[in-house]
Predict the 3D structure of the following.
Amino acid sequence: MRILIFVVALALAGLVTSPVAAEVISRSENAFTLKFEGTTRLDPTEVADAFSEVEQWWDPAHSYTGDAANLSLALETGGCWCEVMPDGSRFDHGRVESVALGELRLHAPFGPLRAMATRADLVVTYALVNGVVRTTWTFVVEGPGVGAMADPVDGVMGGGFTRWTAHMDARASAL
């Protein structure tokens, strides 16, 4: 519900031009699945690049350094979603499992999930459907007790999806 209010507020403010839907698909004591859906005006061939520009759309409040400029995502199999720490070391937030036109797969045990999750898979899909690029994030998390994290993770990931969508639309407007 909080993400819906957030998305409506952003839309009213003119910051999001694409519809975004978020849903906790399933949850149990030891697992949850989140799904976020939207559209973008960006060409499908540019969507993966926009996703890899994580430093431009990820909320810095959900980073260890508080500065999204310290984030990077190497969009290749085995590539790191990393954050450069103040001492110069790199923190590994997740890894790219596969890259294909229309789909990205990552193992992404973000934040507190790193200590809890035995599985944290983020699948990003995008396809041109009837002249509109439809985007989806599906985040499947499993591990002892992770079900209690569904709502807070939904808020963080939903915010990320909304900002990514806005980033893509800004890129489309600049082209």
About this structure: The CA atoms of residues 76 and 99 lie 6 Å apart.
